[in-house]
Amino acid sequence: MHYYLVSLLKSPLSPLTYCSDAILEAGFVVEIPLSKRIVQGVVLERVEKPSFACEEVLLTYKTFYTPKTVELARFIAEYYVCSLGEALALFTPFSQKTLHVNQKVNTHIALSAEQENAFSFIESHPNALLFGDTGSGKTEIYMKLFEATLNAGKQVVFLLPEIGLTPQMKNRLKHHFGTHVAIWHSKISAKKKEAILQEIHEGKICIVAGTRSALFLPLENIGLIVVDEEHDESYKSGNRPRYNAKDLALLFGQKLKAKVLLGSATPTLSSFHKLPTFRLKGTFFEASTHIMYDDGEHGLSHKVVQAIEKALKAKKQVIVFLPTRANFKYITCKACGAHIECPFCSVGMSLHQHMHALKCHYCNYTEAIPHVCPKCGHDEIVATRMGTAEVSLKLSEHFCEHVVQQFDRDEVKTEKKLSDILAQFNEHKIDIMVGTQMLSKGHDYHGVGLAVILGIDALLGMSDFRAREKTLALVQQIAGRVGRKGYGEVLIQSKNGDFFKHYLSDFEQFLNDELGFRKGLYPPFKKMLRVMSAHVKEEKAKESIEKVASLGKHFSQIEIVGYGKANIAKIANKYRYELLVRSDSSKALLEFAHTLKPLHVEIDMDPLSFS
Ligand SMILES: Nc1ncnc2c1ncn2[C@@H]1O[C@H](COP(=O)(O)OP(=O)(O)OP(=O)(O)O)[C@@H](O)[C@H]1O
Ligand SMILES: [Zn+2]
């Protein structure tokens, strides 16, 4: 008998010892019994016969993880505080050695002088940030880098945000690289995935463009990782392990000796601070944008309606942004002032008119619209803070000869729907598009003459040290969708006009000023860690966090910023408590975090969300 240490895929357990008659190679995927179940594991190493009896390996698969992959997974387990098996499970295993095929390509792209400078800058730095205005030609530079990487016999990973894989981007990639490029994201079918993996092994596919899971494909010979729209928060995983694909890209680059490039028109303060940056200014669009402000009443004010009317008369298209989905966000009793809350979450129910229902956006609980206040019985219930559905409805009533399209997660649920709507919009079959954050994401709209930005003060006022950074980036990204040809207008409804007036034309200045505010308090100067506990019994959730806090007092290099009820105190019937720690050293934070494992709390290293 031989004995092996086996890491259990997807399980939070530490590696266990199993035995086998056969000689097993490290890295191979095996099937093993665990209590009464059969699970998959990865052979880590051969070990001495233990003093206890162990179970036998049932089956050895042909798939395996390379030593490099296991090394990367070990880092993920350490840094994001999960088991090795959970970290390994992020990766797609190899099924065979990759054949080495040198693919020669020629994109025939002629870069401008300034783009050439950016290209050389990137060539001469192992990691870099391309801070380029919208339309400054970042994507063309990426393509040129892909070409060079392929011609050097290496592979490319091109990461895009969840919704950034637009039909336009696909077309551009296919145009230049044909069958050498594959698109990868969680929604493609298992069959398609298998076909892609096969072609990767055969060396036919050497560029993978995809969402964050594309970082974990069996690529043996990566020469370049590009993270486009690096400010986008969809690179951060919302589940354990709560990794950030952008940060992992930088780590992978270092370990695999691959170049890593982050790109954005509105980079994060962290990337701007830590990476060598090339500032690419100007735009290839022949356009000018005029920014206007409305500091009056909220919602579809006179000024807003007038601006839309003017744009429509000039045969221009309009986009309207607001941060809220549904018809209304708050349903309030006029007599007692109570909000109607979800019975399972401490958040207001949203009104979805077409479903004739109130719906919770956190747990999806749905109930009929009440006629009287559930608290006091009064029959005057009013709705406040309009959402995308309501604004769409109001606009289609007012501009009844024009086509209005809602553009958010309620309306755009599939990739097909997304590309259909975008195509219709670009064919000018839609006049007004009303949407949430989805509107701002890298889409290339040709005919937009006006962008209206509503409800932005709610975002600016969020209790999050990144609120200013996130909001300004969002407004700038939306503004960047306008006037890609000719004259365009942006109308921002805000009582913080001064902030936007000061910084909208100069994001770089904002970043430099913001650095001053963060010094000594927040990232990128401090490392942060968030600990969450959730329990159906409020006492339990609270006790756990208090235990975490008292443990934390023994670690001299960390500072507990605060702890208590989370911003959203209850979700899906579980009470939520949180604790925030910061330190100059990630090592100190991790030492603390790893001692918390027995408490079954959730650990979020470098958190982005504080709700
Ligand atoms: N060297 C060039 N010569 C001519 N046209 C160019 C050149 N580089 C880019 N363009 C054109 O300019 C437009 C914007 O370029 P590109 O999409 O690469 O910019 P971007 O910075 O990636 O934009 P976004 O911020 O929207 O992602 C495109 O239509 C592109 O074809
Ligand atoms: Zn709920």
UniProtKB/TrEMBL annotation:
GO terms for molecular function: 3'-5' DNA helicase activity; ATP binding; ATP hydrolysis activity; DNA binding; zinc ion binding. Component of the replication restart primosome. The keyword Lyase does not apply. One of its GO terms (biological process) is DNA replication, synthesis of primer. The keyword Glycoprotein does not apply. It catalyses: Couples ATP hydrolysis with the unwinding of duplex DNA by translocating in the 3'-5' direction; ATP + H2O = ADP + phosphate + H(+). Gene3D superfamilies: P-loop containing nucleotide triphosphate hydrolases, PriA, 3(prime) DNA-binding domain. It is an enzyme of class 5 (isomerase). Initiates the restart of stalled replication forks, which reloads the replicative helicase on sites other than the origin of replication. Recognizes and binds to abandoned replication forks and remodels them to uncover a helicase loading site. Promotes assembly of the primosome at these replication forks. Belongs to the helicase family. PriA subfamily. This is Replication restart protein PriA. Zn(2+) 1 binds at C333, C336, C373, C376. Its cofactor is Zn(2+). It comes from the Bacteria. Zn(2+) 2 binds at C342, C345, C360, C363. Its EC number is 5.6.2.4. Keywords: ATP-binding, DNA replication, DNA-binding, Helicase, Hydrolase, Isomerase, Metal-binding, Nucleotide-binding, Primosome, Zinc.
